[in-house]
Amino acid sequence: MRRSWKTLIVAAAVLLGTVGIMSLASASTDNTTVLHVTGKILQTNFLDLGNKGLTPGDQFTQADAVFMNGKRVGSDGLACTITRVAGNFSQAQCLLTLRLPNGQITAQTLSSSTAKTFVFAITGGTGAYRDAGGYITSPVTESTTFPVTLFIDDLSS
Questions:
Q1: Is the dihedral of CA 84, 89, 93, 97 positive or negative?
Q2: Which of 9, 14, 22, 80 is 20 to 30 A from 49, alpha carbon to alpha carbon?
């Protein structure tokens, strides 16, 4: 069964877009903090720009609620732009900003319709995350809730 780009983007959004129910199974090793979270999609939108159908330049946006131990602690926003379409294959560049109680984390990825896992590079942040690096992963899924793992490196040293 082939996956549609919308499914891929929703998965990506679910991946980054939602750093949700933080199953505070967070661990710290050296300068890396690992957070296991679950996101919940609040709103999505696909903008079919230019020619009808999936074409380069089309955009996808998503907003998610972020929860920790069942309590809402933040939100995120995801914006993806389709950069390539070739038959059943497509790719998009996605930018994510995650707001948590102690600051924000920014991340980006170049994902494709054949991906089984979304992997975002953490590009920085604010507040407690001002020296953040690392990456975020999430499986591609059609569910509106999804697991997300953040590997946050402290680049200050």
A1: positive
A2: 14
Q: Any idea where the domains of the chain sit in the sequence? A: 5-154
CB 151 within 8 A of CB 132: no
More confident: 9 or 88: 88
The pTM is what? 0.81
Second-level CATH architecture of 5-154: Beta Barrel (2.40)
